[in-house]
Structure formats: structure tokens, C-alpha cells
Amino acid sequence: xxxxxFSSQNMCWCTPQDFYDELNKEFSFVLDPAATEKTxxxxxxxxxxxxxxxxxxxFGGAVFCNPPYGREIGKWxxxxxxxxxxxxxxxxxLIPARTDTTYFHNFIYWKAEIRFIRGRxxxxxxxxxxxxxxxxPSLLVxxxxxxxxxxxxxxxxxxxxxxxxxxxNEFVASLHRHHTPVCRDKFRxxxxxxxxxxxxxxxxxxxxxxxxxxxxIEAVRLCTDGTPNVCSFLYSRAARIARExxxxxxxxxxxxxxxxxxxxxxxxxxxxxxxxGSWDTPSRPRETNAPTCxxxxxxxNLKGN
Length: 305
What we know:
Shape: elongated
Order of helices and strands: HHEEEHEHEEHEHEEEHEHEE
CATH superfamily of the largest domain: Gcn5-related N-acetyltransferase (GNAT)
Strand order of the largest sheet: 7-8-9-10-11-13-12
CATH class of the largest domain: Alpha Beta
CATH topology of the largest domain: Aminopeptidase
Oligomer: single chain
Number of helices: 8
Number of domains: 2
Helix content: 10-25%
Strand content: 15-25%
Number of strands: 13
CATH architecture of the largest domain: 3-Layer(aba) Sandwich
Largest sheet: 7 strands, mixed
């Protein structure tokens, strides 16, 4: 069955109806550009014969596309991106979660909202019969979403600046809700709006020894003054710089009560839940001022083709 999933020609592996229905409640789709007569989800659709790759996707509303998952998938992603530049409606792609591909970095990262799907989807055949779970994780790519528009608008007025460790620590000491300044870091970035420092992010070796392999870097502090969208701006900038420096992954931890919206908006994904706790032990007593509750580890893979 896996061969079918990876075929560029077969369009008969359809989105589960209940999954599509939930998305449709949010977007009200009008076009399915990668379909057949039997699998089309919308009133307007293109088949292999009419070829959605060569047609305009502007039908006056949102587009849903679950493209063939073979070698042609990059062409569909590129097409969706280019259509998003000329039409104002959301374009939603359902594709395998392969963040190491060229098309992801060229046409998705920083250009669209990304939603990672928990677990594995069970696609159906053209008659609605469910197949086994897909052999890959999936994600939604949403062009022209409200969240990514807000981030891009913020990018126009926000400026990334270099900042000294002392200045970053002073900012954290004055504004962070529950963390104290760090003793050292690898690098740090400030965010400035209108000449005013509104946020900082500090990157260092992973705190966990298991992850400290020289290829992973951790965002150990993120602090803002509450200016909207600064968190996503700094997470995105930190990932770009870490990638240029040769790191293969960037990680950070947030409280289990937080929803990770700023991380989702710039392409990070939840990697694990952790039990929390303190580094204080009888053999090495240490004072812990930070929260010891359960936490979530979020990550972005930086090693691409």
C-alpha cells in the first residue's frame, strides 16, 4: 500500500471525511484542485485531465488541496504558494510532514501557517473505505492565513539587533515572569521597534545532557515587553541564524499550560512532554527558582536538502 501513497499519479487516496468537515467549518472551501470525479470535496474541482497545476485557483473562496504524494508533490506546493500571491483567500494543503525537503524551505517555511497533525491519518479510497494508517506524519500548510499575515506585518516594523549578554540579562531580570538571567549563552538576538528594545531571545547548549550533542541548540530564554508578535519574530530569527551556523535542530521548553501559538506560527512542532522537576540533588544541592511543573519540548529541524 505504501507505493500507492507515494505515487504521483494516483489521486484515489482521499482525506478522511470527518477531518475535512472540521476544516471546512473553519474555511468554507470552494475548490479542490487535485481530485477525481468521485473524490472531489468541493463544488469546483480539477481532475488529472483538467490538470490543476495549469489552472487558476481563483474561484472566489478558500482552496483545499490534498495532492498526489509522489515526486510531483513539490510542484503542487510551489503552485499553491504562487497562487497565494495572486488570490486573497486561504489555500490549505494537506501533505506529509517532511520539513527537510527543498520545497518546504523554499515555499512553506516563513511563507505559510503550519499545523502539525497528531498521530497518523487514515486515508480512504474513492468510495470512502478507510485504509490503514498512513506511513508518515502529516501537516497542514495554510497560505493567506490570518496568523501568518500578522507575523509578516510585524516583520515590517520589527528589527532584529545584536545585543550584549549583560543587556539581555538585564531585560530578562526586569520582565521575565518566572526565569532569572543566564550565566552564559552561545548567542542572543534583540528585537527593536521604533528604537525601543521590546524582546530578547538567548540560545545555549541544551540543558539536557542527552540532547547536548553539538548539533542541537536550545532557546533558553525568551522575554518580551508584551508587544504583539515579538515571540514568533524572535523564534523565527533564532532558527534562521542557528541553521546558518550549522545546527541541525533548535529546541525550547514551554509550560504545560501554554498552547505554543507563537511556535506553531513559525513552523515549530511539539516534540515531547517532559515531567519537569528540579536539578537539585543531595549530591549537588542547587536552588531552583524556575517552575518545576511539567513542560513541553518544542523543536524545529534545521537540516534541509
